[in-house]
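Pilot study result, target chain (1427 residues):
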Amino acid sequence: MPPTESHMPMPQGHMGMGVGTISLATLIDFIVQRTYHELIVLSEILPRKTDMERKIEIVQYANRTRQLFIRLLALVKWANSASKVDKCVEICNFLEQQSMWFVETADSMAKMARETLVCARLPNFSLPCAIDVLTLGTYPRLPSCIREKIVPPDPITSSEKKQVLSRLTQVIQYRLVSCELPQQMRNLKIENGRVKFLVENEFQVTLTLMEDSPVIPWRLLGIDILVEDHETGDGKALVHTLQTGYIHRLAQSRLLDNDKPLHDLYRVLHSFCQSLQLEVLNSQTQKLIRERLGDSLSIDEYVIGKCLSVSYWKDQTKKEKEKSQDAIRYKLSVHVNDEDDAKQLCVSHVPSMLPDECRKIGLTIHSEHISIEKLLMQTIEVRTRAKLKDLSFGIQRYIEGKCEIRDLPLALHVPVLYPCTSSEQLRITIDAQRGMMLASLPSLELPVLQELEESLNGDRKNIQKHLVALRLQLTLLRCERSVNCLYTQACRNLPIVNESDHGLDELSKHRLYVPVPKQTNHYVVVVVDDSPPRSVDITYYLLETTPCLGEGIEAEIGEETNVKSFLKTLKMVPLDTFAFTNGPYTKIFKETEESEIDSFHRKRKLLLGEYMEPVGKKQKMSPYFVTDLVHVVAACEEKLPFVFLGEELNELGILHTNIQVDKEAMGFVMDIIHFPDVPGVSKEDNESFRRTMLSCKVRIVTRPAKWQIEFIFNRDLLQIPNQPDMGPTQRVFSSFDQTSDCQKTVKDLWDEWMAMCNLFTIVKPFSQMYYDSQTGLQSLAEVKSYNYKMLSLLYGSGNTSLVHVQWRCNVKQFTLLFGRQGPSSPMNPHVVMTTQLQHDLNSTKSLAYLTQVLHDTWGPMNSLHKLSSAVILGVGTSPKQSVQTFTVLPQSSTHVRIAYRNNYCLDIHFRTNKAVAVRDGAYSLFDTSKATEGFTPIPMFKAFLSMFVDESVTGSNVHRRSTTEDDNPPSPIVPIDNMDVFSMSQSHQSTGSPGSRTRTDVAPSPSTFIGTPSPGNILAGSPGNPQLHVPSPGSFVPAPSPSSLGIPMQSPASSFISPQGMGDSGSPYPNTSLAMPSPGQRNWPNSPSLQGPSPVSRHGMAASPGHPTLHSPLTQVKDDHAKSSVMSPPSRTLPQRAWAASTPTLLSHEAFDNLLKPTTLQQLPIHVALSPLERFLGCNFIRRHIVRSFGQEKHLTNIQANEPGVNVFKAETLQFRVSLNTSTLQSLHMKIQPLPEYKDQWSQEEIQIFERYFDLKVACPPYKSNSLTAFARLLKAQPRILKDVIQIMRLELMPNQDRNLKWSVQLLLTVPPAYAHMAPAGTPAIVVVQKMILMLQLTRINVQLPQGTQGQQTPQQAPDQTITIPLLYNILENIITLVEKGPTLPNANLQHVSQQLKRFMERFHPNADCAIYPAVRELLTNLVLPS
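Predicted structure:
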């Protein structure tokens, strides 16, 4: 707010030398405020003035402000250098002020003496007034002169105010009634002595009267201008307060001395409001031109307060002027009503509009919202509708559907196609800014649209041509998008090199190439042509191409070339759409169609409104989807693979039919009527299998795309008992991946046929034998399923095991898959023999033989699965090497080897009549005095097996020898990790089968080339003949299979007789590995002494012609020993002594299961479930390690023992005797005796504890050799140290004797995994040199949790707290501490143990007894670990 006269501050100081003073800061503040105020006023006034007026005002403001600040600058510069003048001025002002004070003092005293003091008299004391004031607190006797001048009169009351205002309101009403009011000012309101006149959207005035005289003029109290600008005004008032004040004064002057003051008032304010509205419209127009529309809009004329003329669509006008001088110019004028100035602003148009169109826009300006843009948009919308309506009449005759004008902004929707979707309709709009017509399609940009726009905005002669082109383009787009659902993508062009020489050049240019899905060189050509007058015609061709180079040279698909591949057309075939899209029952003749002339007359009447078209039927699918094209492409996709497949089938000689429509499914099918003979299969079997097949159909299934082959066979081969209602036929389905390579598909189909045919060749004889009651195969196995591709058999106890038989074409042999029936069934024990059983089946081609083998070997194989295969650490020479306990090594379908910890080996042969032959596999097959490389003979093995011999198997011809010398051969030391002989061995095969007859086409067993069998071998009988001759025991010695010696050779087995009265050839699968005669001298009744094989026979001599190589179980050979001895060739002399373990021992299946079944031994106090065989072998393993490892210790001396199964050695003061339990042969026991000279040093209790510890902790499962090594190292210690260790053993074996101990102790013989940083886990944990290392494991005992709630009165046992401590004992200094190797006591518990030991050693006297036991007892008694 600028400073005015009333707001001017008083000058600082008195007037001196005729000049007033003011602060420089105040002066600068006044100047800045004045400049800012003028700038604000200028910014509010300038937008409503013309450009020239704005420029003049800005220049004047700048000049005025510049002059002002120049004066200020001069004043500031002068003030900076006028310090002396200022001082002088101050001095003058001070002196002038002093002089003024002296004069004023003299004048005041003179006036007081002459005037005031003359009349000054002391009045009488006013006692009544004083009494009133003191008693009543009031002053009622105040003089009237004082009351009237000082005390103001009382204000009028509210009732008086209401009375006055009511009277004034009556005066105003009378004045209004008595005078004439303008028509526009009839909206008035009288209240509180004032009258308000409201003219909508223009102004509002407030009047009153000062008196009730009729000649008193109206008093104007206020004016409010109601004209607003919502677009450019930014919400500010359009009239400045100064302007409002000026209008106020002007209007007040018109109310004086006027006969019609209110009429004059209205004319003044109405004229101003209309001028303001025109100014607002002009400002809005200028803003539109400046910011948005530019040259498209211009102001033709603007007269202040009169009119505003605006031109629009100037681009359209310019284009029309180029063609014609009489171009239409589109104008919009807003002007004052010429007939009556009191009315609102009028709107007029050039060229003129129809009355209805004008009424839509509005004949006058609506003052409630003044907007030139809205007025223009309404005008353009009306103009657009009129132009589009004229255009629709011109286009309607070129299209089939009906044109519509809709949407906002308005658009003409032209259905180019019929029927047409909303996304395909041509949309013609008019640009609101330029007035040009625009043609567009939703989400499409086509070149033909630009040409159509040019025709619409220019000469419209070529509109039909462009509409036809657009119709063809849209049809191609329909086709292009319709094939997207078929996993293919259409293209407009192909790189074809010979298009000009081909029929493609004659086709229309509007064509589309659709690649046939899954075919690389075939295309469906879609050709679109115009069909006058308003439709299109689509034709289809199938085009075959081939890849080529740019010169037209054909190239392979996989050929690498730097030149881009092109295509060369081969042939093109037109496609019959009717045949592709219609079935066999479609009507050929359609109903009569409407002629073109009738259709034209109907549509003409429809457009003129003379005819109403009936509502058509709703289409079932979108017109956007070209169904014929999809059918054609889909049919080509389905038929072409059949065509290629048929070509490949013809090359292979497979006869088939043509492509047919499947009657049972939606699609195509091809029937195969004949397959050629399968190589390797007899012609009779081929013919029989082809007669079994009733039909073979080839189909294509989708998701995923595969070939489906359906075979239908007769169900007369095997009847499945669990599926009786399957009908007389059986369907077999096969599926192959559908690829472009049909040759692979045909090969897979041929492989499938070969597999089924080969399986049929073995199933057919099996079915005959299976349903023969004499064979008994139905009791051995059950046929679960047979689908010509796989045969599934159930066998074993309760039919819990499952085997699948099928033919594999990739390996050209039968394969077996073993499984189980049901999740609760045990694991199939024949899984490990899969390779051997497959070899037997492929050699014999007999399912009956396979069934017999599986049935007879299921029991012992199931027993073998009970053996432990756990991997144990600390039993080998390497501390980091783990050794498997038992390893089963199948050699043939009836022969397995079992390796125990890579040291011992067992040969096991499965026999008929539930018998198993077991021998020591470490003995050489050629010389029993030598061991097989990598294994060690098992001592006392024969005696151990004799404990499990069943009388029901051996009969009455058992020759039991109790000699122990023959059962304990010398044990050569051989490497234990050499397993090459068995790891390289191949499976032995047998060739016999139940129900088969004697075969002469099987090669003899290699055993016939190695040695001559005993006479009993020839007199073999069937299982039905139990009266067999007593064979020679030489038949127990197994002959080596070439595969067991590392020689890959197919070895059919010969027939042999088992010892002890059971014939070996009674098995349907004669054993191959028991063919070598015994190398020892045998003296059997009625049997000559047979010697070993001769060198000639060992190098390949053929067997005697009289030797039968194969015997049927149904054939009984009756012969005698004399005949057999005559046929046997002489053998060389053998050593005088043989080992009993090399001779097989016959066990029944029950006894064999007892041998391998985990049980507990009652003689041992610690019951661990192990098999008797594992306990026996473990004891022998410990005995063997005693001989080997104890012999390496210098402080131990081995003593030769005369008793079998006994090891004797002595230490410095003790003699030890380790013996095998003679009753069970499954446990070791130690007996200790002090040497005579040291008898007094050892007590009987200490010796018993030592013996018991060895029995329970050393020679116990899992039979670790490193535990024995640690025990042997312990014997190196001095007697006093050993006594302390024995006391620790006593605490371990009898933990409950002392109730004062808080911990139980266990002496660790091997290093636990937690201390792998000290030594590898599993290595011996006891070291005795100059210092001694012991490892103890302490477990917290006698700890109970506090009692629980009332219902839990019984105390709960606390969880075990365990700690392992490594102790280091200094033998020389008698000091015991913790081992500190590796990380320095990372465990907090070990730190407490270390501190406890240090406190103990501080109290312990070094010269006393050994410190080991006292220190350990101290820990067990007083050690407390943090919780």
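One observation from the pilot: The chain has 35 helices and 42 strands. A full batch analysis is planned for the follow-on phase.
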